[in-house]
Amino acid sequence: MDLNLSREHEMLRDMVKEFADNELAPRALELDNKGEFFWEQVKRSGQLGLIGVINSKEYGGTAMGHLARMILIEEISRVYPPMGFFHQTGNLLMYAVETFGSDEQKKKYLPALCKGEKVSALALTEATGGSDPANMQTEATLEGDDYVVNGRKSWITAVDPADVVGFVARTGDKFNTFIVEKGTPGFEVTRREETIGLRSLPVNEFALTSCRLPKENLIGEEGRGLASALTTIATIGRTGAAGVGLGIARGCYEIALKFAKERVLYGKPIAALQAIQFMLADMNVEIEAAKWLCYSTAWQLDQGKTSRDLAVDIARCKLYAVDVANRCAYKAMDIMGAYGLSPEYRTIGLLRDALELGVAAGSQGIMKVTIGATITR
Amino acid sequence: MGLEILVCIKQVPHPDHFSEIRLDVDSGRIVREDIPAVINPLDRNALEEGLRIKERFSGRVTVLSMGPPQAQKALEEALAMGADRGILLCDVAFAGADTLATANALFYAIRKLGKFDLIYCGNETVDSGTAQVGPQLAELLDIPQVSGVQEVTFGDENILEVKRALEYGYMKVRLKLPALLCVTRDINRPRLPTVQSIMEVAQKEMVIWKAKDIGAPPESVGLKGSPTCAAGVYEHKAGRRREIIQGSTEEKVQRAVARLKELGVI
Amino acid sequence: MSNSGEIWVIGEQRRGRLEEVSLELLSKGMALSQRMGVTLSAVLLGDEVEEVAREFVFHGAEKIYLLEDARLRYYHSEAYARLLAGVIKEHEPQVVLIGATEIGKELAPKVAAKLRTGLTAHCIDLYVGEVDASPHLIHVVPGWGGNLVMHIICPQKRPQVVTMKPGVLPKTVRDDNKKGKIIRVKPDVTDEDFNRIETVEVVEEPPQGKSLESAEVVVCGGWGMNALGGFSKVQELADILGGVVAGTRPAVDKGWVDEARMIGQSGKTVSPGLFLSLGASGAMHYTTSFMGSKVVLAVDHNPQAPIFQMADIGIVGDLREILPYLIEELKKDRMPKKF
Fold first, then answer.
1. What's the ipTM?
2. What CATH topology corresponds to B3-220?
């Protein structure tokens, strides 16, 4: 069992680390305060080949795979979680089109998305509950060659600047996944939510009011839309959220460790005190465990296993990485005392970002439902 | 045009970790095995320049390095940035080389590789910082060379115009190719590898040569080929007092100023 | 030592102005020539620089080889390197000292390579000592972290070529009663020397006011000044102490200070009476550049910062709290001493 990362994965990590430290970290605090995002850096990420890592080269992707994606999201999230989270949500529709879409759809949408020239979102959740998608109310009715859509989706990341939005609607008692482009009549972003974490990224509500979409905008097999969306969310959303969790956990750990070595109380650095060492040790163990849960899951996806085969692995790594991120953020703040509350040290910002991860790509509760239901089958 | 471009690089300990390098007093050796290693920062500027020239005029970028086996990682990083092939000179015969012996090793490798139109080096390394290998290599190759290069402009035919730093100004010279340029950080901002270029590394040529592969006479390289050699490493008893002043902020400052007065400097 | 060759200092002039590093090298040259019992000579290239040559004599050179030609007015690496190598081959000095200026750093390796001889860069000291019970000229070079020094020797090849940075050594004292020989050497300059490299333009604007290297007090700010948003406090301290402002590489990158005021391996080396380091943690390429200072005061928030190993007085704490107090305290005594 060779546990070494390949040379290419190591080089990827080094490159993303440099990108994140030099080009994202300097403005992270400012953007978090303002609730603004780095959309220019999305193009930069695309130029570096980071956005299309799970898309094929034929359509502008770099096809480096899920483990590569996990590593890059982790490294970015270590210093600026909103960008890591952008890779989580921004990749959703890209995967859905690549996996379920027609050749025309792939050619039409993927190249610009891989380059970061356009951005996308995928919407499942509505007021009826993201955890209960089968009861969604948004309806798409076939009228001739078009579908007419009515409904409202909520708690969707980054619909506001998105050029292309995928969403699931019921047609009768079946479900379909559609693409709607910005500017389409009947598609309107209605709200931006006030969020406590990942504040750079907008979380929106949008309405579809007699929105007319041609049949070409249907992704995949008719009637199989919910299945495709859930597969997408599992394969891409949950693994992405896990990667963000890993990054946040490591970011907090590194900040706390450096602080503990420098902060002097009672004549020596606090890193010499066992209480502090215990907290750091706990963080160290959990981060390492979370890392292997996440990496092994991503690696298995790269080996060709499906999200159905890996339902438990995927749920497990998201569940654990997000919990570890939250625990590490609290411990880091504990170690740092008053400084932990100071925004410039980033720990309080990372904690707020970790809080948002709980409900991303399926809540922590849903992760346990997935695991529990599967193992007791 | 199709230029043959060579970039000489060196793997060095990561500058952020220099303070961790220790002297093992018993063996008299410097211990730096655990320190992460990187491409010398100015060598990345040199490589970036070579890549830009290749993109503009077409050609091939070869990276060459003399070092221990782990220096292969630096060459791989260079390939990931976009270099076309990498050559590592790795042989116990090269060990202990001073700058002249290093220049000799590079010279014999270049002689084996063939003609180059342009050779780029970083002006100095962050570890030894002598800035000597570039000029010495140019001497051995008998080609014109400039250090401290901040800007390069291509003229007609095989002429370059180069701006080089002076302490309080600059100098501009015109050079005929083939030439060797030692660049400073002002010249460009090195690119990051992309996912695409990282994945292409496996297809690129990487060779490791020993002294006999390049026909380097034993007395020209390594310790044997070095006119200078190390006669010892010592802890520098700088005689610094290393007094850390204690007390509240106000007290610390007052005591520090008082000490400066006692020492007669204010 | 088994050689009887002279000690040579390669002098540097620009536009008829003597570079001060040459006078610093002469002081080391004098010490070595006395210790080794051989003549101290200098070499100067240029055009209409006889007055500069005379300065070398007034500063201690017993002889100076003067190579003048209109085509040598400005430094030209190929012409200078060939002529120097030639005159060295002819007269066989055993030690050659060159200043590690921007020009010297390029010229020295070219000359040493032409002669296939040894070259040691950036020495901080040079003295006759013993290695394995034999006398050798020991080239002392700062090593990693500034806490280590390496001793380099050049056992066989001659001359031994050594460069030293400006600002490391003291200058010799001028005495216009000193007598010495100016030996005019007709350099065999040809057009071919200028065939491969052509000088287009030379622009130099030495800064107004005190240079970094000659200042008695240097106040150097590093990355830690970020917490105060810039260098205003650094300037204030320099003004109170009658010193000059300098910065480390990160400070230059931030635009707080000019590159010409950068202290570090690729910047300037200074040896003032008092060196203040503010918010610079002390990486090696910084600390070796102020090693010659008489007294070093360091202020930094990190007690583990390497700078405190290189300082005489250390204050650990938040710069935002310490600097205002420091300014107040120093204002109370506004008369900086002269050394």
1. 0.91
2. Rossmann fold (3.40.50)
Closest chain B residue by Cα to residue C101: B167
Minimum distance, in Å, between the CA of residue A49 and any CA atom of chain C: 28
B201: closest chain A residue by CA = A8
Question: Crossing angle of helices A225-232/A81-100, nearest 10°?
Answer: 140
Maximum Cα–Cα distance across chain A: 80
Distance CA C299, CA C290 (A): 15
pLDDT of residue B225: 96
Q: What is the separation, in whole angstroms, between the first and last Cα of chain C?
A: 38
CB within 8 Å: B174 and C149: no
Q: Give domain C7-194's CATH architecture.
A: 3-Layer(aba) Sandwich (3.40)
pLDDT in tens, A229-277: 999 999 999 999 999 999 999 999 999 999 999 888 887 889 999 999 9
> Which of A11, A19, A62 has the CB atom closest to B80's CB atom?
A11
A258 touches chain C (CB under 8 A): no
- Determine, for residues B77 and A50 on separate chains, whether the beta-carbon distance falls below 8 Å: no
* Least confident window among A281-285, A346-350, C66-70, C211-215: C211-215
CA distance A105 to A215: 12
Question: Which stretches of chain A are DSSP H helices?
Answer: 7-19, 25-34, 39-47, 66-79, 81-100, 103-115, 225-232, 239-262, 274-302, 311-336, 338-341, 347-357, 364-375
Q: For testing the chain C interface, which of A22, A262, A342, A345 should be mutated: the one with the most C CBs within 10 Å? A: A262
Give CATH for domain C212-331. Answer: 3.40.50.1220
Domain ranges of chain B: 3-220, 236-266
Q: For B262, which residue in chain C has the nearest alpha carbon?
A: C295
The ranges of chain C annotated as CATH 3.40.50.620 are: 7-194
Write out chain B residues lying below 8 Å of A62, CB-based. Answer: 194-196, 199
Q: Which residues contact A195 (CB under 8 A, 6 or more apart)?
A: A201, A203, A356
Opening angle at CA B42, ends B75 and C81, nearest 5 = 110
Q: State whether C295 and B136 contact (CB < 8 Å).
A: no
List the chains bordering chain C where 3 or more Cβ pairs fall under 8 Å: A, B
At C27, which helix (H) or strand (E)? helix C20-36
Report the SS3 class of residue C319: helix
Please provide the average confidence, as pLDDT, over all residues in chain A.
95
Tell me if A261 and C304 make a contact (CB, 8 A cut-off): yes
DSSP code of A201? S
Cα of A336 to nearest chain B Cα, Å? 21
Tell me if A47 and B194 make a contact (CB, 8 A cut-off).
yes
Could B201 and A68 be called an inter-chain contact, meaning their C-beta atoms sit closer than 8 Å? no
Output the six-digit token pair for C137: 């000229």
Distance CA B40, CA C144 (A): 15
Nearest Cα residue in chain A from C227: A344
Run of H or E including C45? strand C40-46
Put simply, the answer to whether C106 touches B16 (Cβ < 8 Å) is no
Domains and CATH numbers, chain A: 7-118 (1.10.540.10), 121-225 (2.40.110.10), 226-375 (1.20.140.10)
Q: How many CA atoms lie within 13 A of A17 on its CB side?
A: 9
Put simply, whether A14 touches C (Cβ < 8 Å) is no
Pairing of strands A174-181, A164-171: antiparallel
Exposure class string for C122-140: b at 16+ Cβ within 10 A, else e: bbbbbeeeeeeeeebbbbb
Name the pTM for this structure.
Answer: 0.90
